[in-house]
């Protein structure tokens, strides 16, 4: 009886998350019709990182833990002061905050399901601590808030260094018994270990044997950080994935991996898509040139006939790779990723049903070696710093777009469809206007001013959408 009442209470609370999410993203917030979770033959997973729920702790007068510590250079007793603080943004809170942690997990699930993500691949950082409790809460949140949404285990082999196949099987059986677990149509539990190469192929064979003996067979998808030994895992795997590169190299890296996976005997592969990547804690950043990296990886997914997309990440704020609605990126990456998800699942670009634009730009002209902003950063990858304003346009017919940055206005005629225009950024306000035949379709002043003299390094591409009130 107590279990039944608890589930009824959870179901009633889940009804709060769904209207809230629907209010956040009504049909008019997107210039196309988004895909649905559980629809189509191609799988779309988002990597969920347990340390960063929507809210951490209680919200007092000075905010929650994000606001008191993670977003401040002096936070956590100055632990990350050298990098200007741990994070550059936080998950986007709903008005009034959250009633409890469970409400945040339900909102995460509802937000992801709204744009067609099929499930979270949750990073298993531990098997009995607070991150494991988050994992269990996500399973319940999916069951309660989005019936078609699933949660899959992604054992983190960089964190579970001493785990045995027996202990890991014990944890995975918890997934296998839960109705929200991610399974293939044949019933197998999808297991996608991060840095799978850190243990031998024999480890995964023993794990699979134990799970099979327990009546819970698995489908293994090794997610490689270093794929040099990938041949050793091919015979027992359902698919393979590569954590991958960022920036303009993202697509070519994924293409090469797909070719290597096929040559090694993998029956299919999953493509990795990431919005951006920088790490204040490590003083390093990759230049992604606005949406270049995301678009490059998506092209590789389509041309390489990927069986699925692995979105990296939903919420790893420590590496700034989050696509979830957030305080500075707002819904920009979320909405743009929704377009690629719909395209991927349907096999063709979605029909554009209303005009709109998504804009990405930094809040400073990033200069990693400017020591006036703090310790110098290392620029990783193959791309030089670009500092451009990236305008993504969704047009039902040809139109004219103008971008004003630093008081200088640029104008361009743009054909119908899904288009892109980039303009060099300058300090000051950013204004973007969209017109057609003398009619103003959008007139947005960015909520983010480009600082002339920033006091810390901030490579984050923040954003806004014209269909969300220029926010």
Offer a quick outline of the entry.
Keywords: Signal. Helix content is 28%, strand content 22%.
Secondary-structure map:
Layout: H1 2-24, E1 43-48, H2 65-70, H3 75-78, H4 101-114, E2 119-124, H5 130-145, E3 150-155, H6 165-176, E4 189-191, H7 201-213, E5 218-220, E6 223-224, E7 240-242, H8 250-264, E8 269-273, E9 278-279, E10 284-286, H9 292-303, E11 308-311, H10 332-346, E12 356-362, E13 378-380, E14 388-395, E15 399-405, E16 408-414, E17 417-424, E18 430-436, E19 439-445, E20 461-465
Parallel strand pairs: 1-2, 1-11, 2-3, 4-5, 6-7, 7-8, 8-11, 10-13
Antiparallel strand pairs: 9-10, 12-14, 12-20, 14-17, 15-16, 15-18, 18-19
What does this structure look like?
This protein is an alpha/beta fold and 471 residues long. It has helices at residues 2-24, 65-70, 75-78, 101-114, 130-145, 165-176, 201-213, 250-264, 292-303, 332-346, and strands spanning 43-48, 119-124, 150-155, 189-191, 218-220, 223-224, 240-242, 269-273, 278-279, 284-286, 308-311, 356-362, 378-380, 388-395, 399-405, 408-414, 417-424, 430-436, 439-445, 461-465. The chain has 3 domains: 2-55 and 91-346, Glycosidases (TIM Barrel), CATH 3.20.20.80; 56-90, no CATH class; 356-468, Immunoglobulin-like (Sandwich). The strands form 5 sheets. The chain has a 7-stranded parallel sheet. Helix 4 (101-114) crosses helix 5. The longest helix is centred in the N-terminal third of the chain and has 23 residues, at 2-24. It is globular.
């Amino acid at each position: 009886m107590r279990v039944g009442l608890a589930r009824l209470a959870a179901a009633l609370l889940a009804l709060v998350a769904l209207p809230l999410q629907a209010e956040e993203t009504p049909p008019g917030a997107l210039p196309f019709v988004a895909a649905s979770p559980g629809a189509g033959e191609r799988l779309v997973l988002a990597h969920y990182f347990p340390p960063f729920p929507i809210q951490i702790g209680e919200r007092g007068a000075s905010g929650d833990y994000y606001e008191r510590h993670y977003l401040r250079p002096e936070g956590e007793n100055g632990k990350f002061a050298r990098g200007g603080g741990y994070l550059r943004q936080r998950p986007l809170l709903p008005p009034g905050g959250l009633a409890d942690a469970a409400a945040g997990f339900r909102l995460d699930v509802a937000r992801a399901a709204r744009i067609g993500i099929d499930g979270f691949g949750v990073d298993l950082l531990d098997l009995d601590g607070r991150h494991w409790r988050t994992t269990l809460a996500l399973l319940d949140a999916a069951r309660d808030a989005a019936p078609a949404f699933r949660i899959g285990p992604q054992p983190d082999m960089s964190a579970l260094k001493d785990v045995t196949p027996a202990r890991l099987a014990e944890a995975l059986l918890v997934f296998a018994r839960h109705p929200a677990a991610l399974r293939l149509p044949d019933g197998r539990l999808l297991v996608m270990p991060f840095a799978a190469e850190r243990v031998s192929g024999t480890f995964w064979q023993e794990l699979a044997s134990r799970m099979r003996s327990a009546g819970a067979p698995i489908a293994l998808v090794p997610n490689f950080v270093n794929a040099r030994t990938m041949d050793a895992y091919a015979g027992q795997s359902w698919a393979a994935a590569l954590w991958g590169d960022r920036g303009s190299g993202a697509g070519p890296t994924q293409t090469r991996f797909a070719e290597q996976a096929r040559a090694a005997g993998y029956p299919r592969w999953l493509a990795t898509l990431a919005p951006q990547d920088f790490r204040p804690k490590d003083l390093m950043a990759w230049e992604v040139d606005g949406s270049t990296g995301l678009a490059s990886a998506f092209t590789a997914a389509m041309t390489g006939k990927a069986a699925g997309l692995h979105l990296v990440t939903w919420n790893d704020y420590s590496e700034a790779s989050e696509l979830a609605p957030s305080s500075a990126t707002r819904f920009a990456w979320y909405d743009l990723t929704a377009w690629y998800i719909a395209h991927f699942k349907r096999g063709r670009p979605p029909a554009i049903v209303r005009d709109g634009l998504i804009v990405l730009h930094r809040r400073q002209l990033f200069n990693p070696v400017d020591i006036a902003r703090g310790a110098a950063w290392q620029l990783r990858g193959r791309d030089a710093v670009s500092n451009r304003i990236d305008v993504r346009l969704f047009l039902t017919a040809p139109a004219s777009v103008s971008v004003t940055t630093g008081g200088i206005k640029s104008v361009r005629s743009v054909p119908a469809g899904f288009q892109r225009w980039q303009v060099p950024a300058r300090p000051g306000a950013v204004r973007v206007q969209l017109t057609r035949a003398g009619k103003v379709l959008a007139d947005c002043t960015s909520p983010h001013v480009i600082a002339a003299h920033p006091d810390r390094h901030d490579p984050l591409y923040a954003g806004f959408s014209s269909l969300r009130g220029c926010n």
